[in-house]
Design goal:
Pfam families: ABC2_membrane. This protein is an all-alpha fold. About 80% of the residues lie in helices and about 0% in strands. The longest helix has 29 residues, at about 135-165.
């Protein structure tokens, strides 16, 4: 109960800070919206090819990738905020409190998850006038996947931020990781339309399977192998991310 109470206190503080300065959340949502309005229309002429006959709606292919992208990149860079708090002495002040070290991370991660889910809902609502049609069950499960991805990448971002304690080290590290993940996960276009060697290379990325799983959910194939593999990988990534984040917070905040 103490961990839950401490988590709620940390979450409330973090959420108030986000509401006072919503510019970061707006900027993170603006990128997927630009992809939606400026890149999405280009997919319509090649819908049959990118969907391989599974759907006639290009946005059933494109929007799942965008919300996964939002879950990844919306949480990947939250560590910069933690570095700012470290320099302001907030982390040092947290160390002398009786608050649970896990709660110090969990409260911040919960704030990031709530923000990402709200952003994903807004993105889905913006896609409806453009022609997005998907079953409610698949959409709700997709939001759960976005929440788990957000928890994963936020935990890892906070962990790396506590270790590096420097934007100069964190920025190139995250950018070096983000680009391969973006290109090999099939977020913008399914990897099935690429050459064989690129498909094989992308198979090593768990995020490719997550993206394919969300696309299956948007088609209504909730019990398909693609959706089940996507759920499996996102749960595994979440367990690993939270474990690494909790361990780092215990060590660095001891």
């Amino acid at each position: 109960m103490k961990v839950l109470t401490d988590t709620w206190i940390v979450f409330n503080r973090a959420m108030r800070l986000s509401l006072r300065n919503p510019m970061w959340s707006i900027l993170m949502l603006s990128q997927p919206l630009m992809y939606l309005f400026l890149f999405g229309p280009l997919l319509k002429p090649i819908t049959a090819q990118i969907s391989q006959g599974a759907t006639t709606n290009a946005y059933q292919v494109f929007i799942p990738g965008l919300i996964v992208q939002l879950g990844m990149f919306g949480a990947m860079f939250v560590g910069f905020g933690l570095i700012a708090e470290y320099r302001a002495g907030v982390i040092e002040a947290d160390r002398v409190t009786p608050a649970s070290r896990i709660a110090l991370m969990a409260g911040r991660v919960l704030r990031d998850v709530v923000v990402l889910v709200v952003q994903s809902i807004l993105l889905l609502l913006a896609a409806l006038p453009l022609g997005l049609r998907a079953p409610w069950g698949g959409v709700l499960l997709s939001l759960v996947i976005v929440a788990l991805l957000g928890a994963t990448f936020a935990s890892l971002s906070y962990s790396v931020a506590l270790i590096t304690k420097s934007e100069d080290a964190l920025a190139p590290l995250l950018n070096g990781i983000a680009m391969p993940l973006l290109l090999l996960s099939g977020i913008l276009l399914p990897m099935q339309i690429g050459p064989t060697w690129l498909q094989r290379l992308s198979d090593i990325s768990p995020l490719k399977h997550v993206v394919n799983g969300v696309r299956a959910l948007f088609r209504g194939d909730i019990s398909s192998s693609a959706s089940l593999w996507g759920l499996f990988w996102v749960v595994l990534l979440t367990v690993v991310g939270l474990a690494v984040g909790a361990r780092t917070f215990r060590k660095e905040s001891a």
